[in-house]
Amino acid sequence: LLALRHATAEAAARHLAGQDGGGWRSFNLVVADRAGAFFLRGTGERAITAERLLPGIHMVTAHDPDDFASPRVARHLPRFRADRLPSPPDWSTWPALLADSAGPRDAALHVPEAGGFGTVTSSLVGLGERTAFLTAMPPAAFAPVDTGATPAT
User: Fold this and answer.
1) Which residues contact 8 (CB under 8 A, 6 or more apart)?
2) CB distance 131 to 146 below 8 Å
3) Which residue in 34, 74, 97, 105 is a FRET match for 61, CA 20 to 30 A apart?
4) Residue 75 region, left (φ>0) first, then alpha (ψ -120 to 50), else beta?
5) Global pTM value
6) Is 38 in contact with 29 (CB distance < 8 Å)?
7) What is the pLDDT along the chain (153 residues), one digit of tens a residue?
8) Cα–Cα distance measured from residue 9 to residue 16, given in angstroms and rounded to the nearest whole number
9) Contacts 24+ apart (CB under 8 A), 103-106
10) Where in the chain does DSSP place strands (E)?
């Protein structure tokens, strides 16, 4: 919620970076707008860190962005990068890629909750000429979320 108080992703990242992360459980967070995207990490012990993400397709799990040590990233990031880049509201084949639960549990994108942890929702966010946000709780289909955002003019 602290990030949402800022008008830009850069301002939010700048504000959160350096804050004492001891007040929260550990987390990875992506803050993005049309001008840029930032990866923030709170360890639950030290200051929150922020790094700018270069333009392109990224995956964030419990690891660093695009870290192939993560079985999810190793299995799926090449698939997303090889696929046709969607042009929201046309998401092409990306919903099917996100719904893929084949393979080992540690490489699945949808992981049923077990022991308090799991990936129970998936989202597609497009920040371009038009803002588009879809979310799903598999096995349900993706549905648009009304963000109240207006298209760029």
Assistant:
1) 33, 35
2) no
3) 34
4) alpha
5) 0.80
6) no
7) 888 899 999 999 999 998 888 888 889 999 999 899 999 999 888 899 999 999 889 999 888 999 999 998 999 999 999 998 888 778 888 888 887 777 787 887 766 666 666 666 777 887 767 677 777 776 667 788 876 655 544
8) 11
9) 103/75, 104/71, 106/71, 106/72
10) 27-33, 36-42, 49-53, 111-114, 117-119, 122-127, 131-136, 143-144
Q: Which of 132, 150, 151 is nearest to 142 (CA)?
A: 132
Cis status, amide bond into 112, omega within 30 of 0: no
Q: In this structure, what token pair is assigned to residue 116?
A: 């308090």
Per-residue tokens: 128: 């371009």
Distances (CA, A) of 97 to 43, 60, 76, 103, 123: 30, 16, 8, 13, 12
What separation, in Å, do the N-terminal and C-terminal C-alpha atoms of the chain show? 27
